[in-house]
Amino acid sequence: MKVAKALARAGDGRRAITTFMFATGIENSVPTINNGRTRIDEMESCGHYQRWREDFALVEEMGIGFLRFGPPIHKTWLGEGRYDWSFADETFADLRRRNIVPIVDLCHFGVPDWIGDFQNPDFPDLFCNYAGEFSRRYPWVQLYTPVNEMFICATFSARYGWWNEQLQTDRGFVTALKHLVKANVQAMREILQIRPDAIFIQSESSEYFHAESPKAIRPAELMNSQRFLSLDLNYGRRVDSEMYEYLMDNGMTRAEYHFFLDNRLKQHCIMGNDYYVTNEHRVSDDGVTRAAGEIFGYSEITRQYHARYRLPVMHTETNLNQGPLGTEAVDWLWKEWANVLRVRNDGVPVVGFTWYSLTDQVDWDTALREKNGNVNPLGLFDLDRNIRPVGRAYKKLIGQWRDVLPTQSLCLTVPVVMPREDGDDHAEAQWVRAEEMLIAAAAAQGE
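Now predict its structure.
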């Protein structure tokens, strides 16, 4: 009866948030280094545990409606079936009160000590349970990034030997990647059972590898195929024959591969792509890579990813050091924004933009490989919570463009239920329709 009344009062159920999603984030990376002996906790390094109320107030003051944020996994997930939700309870209640939409980041480059690392085959099933417990506890939350930057996490942990398992092998890389993506897929399925209209924004690094010479063409081609593996598996897209052989040669089984093909959840997804000045690489004859700087830029690389997956796009991360002139970050913001407008005007459905993160970060100058306490001036605010020039520029940008973009024909309607609307007639109707679609999709797949 409650459902029927909600559907009747909500009319055709097509009301949705048509705003462009301007966002920032709270950096919550938690990898381990020194063979697991040292935990790098960016929330701790940046003072968020003590100043979270102030941080959320700054988000509100900036006019930013969406926040990439998640509970610290190593402090929240204490063991199988054991949780400490105290910090999450306080912070998510405050976000809801402020009507800030969280894009919940559940796993950001690390796992609790009791799990070990991403080589653990039990991680996907265990993480699925963790995601489900979170979703049941906070049913008003709709937007999720279950596992952040799966490709980068596997690369840094198991190919470069920097974090977590600190391996430098193709087999270690494939093992980490398949566990990370399986965890993400299973978490999406579990969350959809609880919140049928959940939307998943995959924050994944958008990469490109440039050959320095004719002899480097072959290794560059391989790397440009491997950069798609995490999203190919996540979206149930068949990989090409060479990548299939690569996966099989390095420990993936046919059954594991078909698990990904059989879980097509992309209709619930927005492709979040991250772009930094470090995302493009020069490849030498022997396959060694080094930073290339910005060559193609965000717009060209985003077109490549969109052509492959045909999904709505959100620019989910970018930043740059403020620099000695004090204008470098501001110039980068406007360059990235110009790229966003360019691809959007070309027909790519871009629905959001993110400066990451709200405050400066610590030790990203060494990619969190060392715990030196070096402050990186990348934030909208410094660690004393004083606004930086890029913060003022971003606030101005939001004010200028927020009311313009939704009126343009290329703006995709994103069916977001704002925190204060949770439980109203429209939200109930959207929930029911989403559940009906899930049932129909399952029936079509013979589940």
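The chain has two domains: 1-17+417-447, 23-411.
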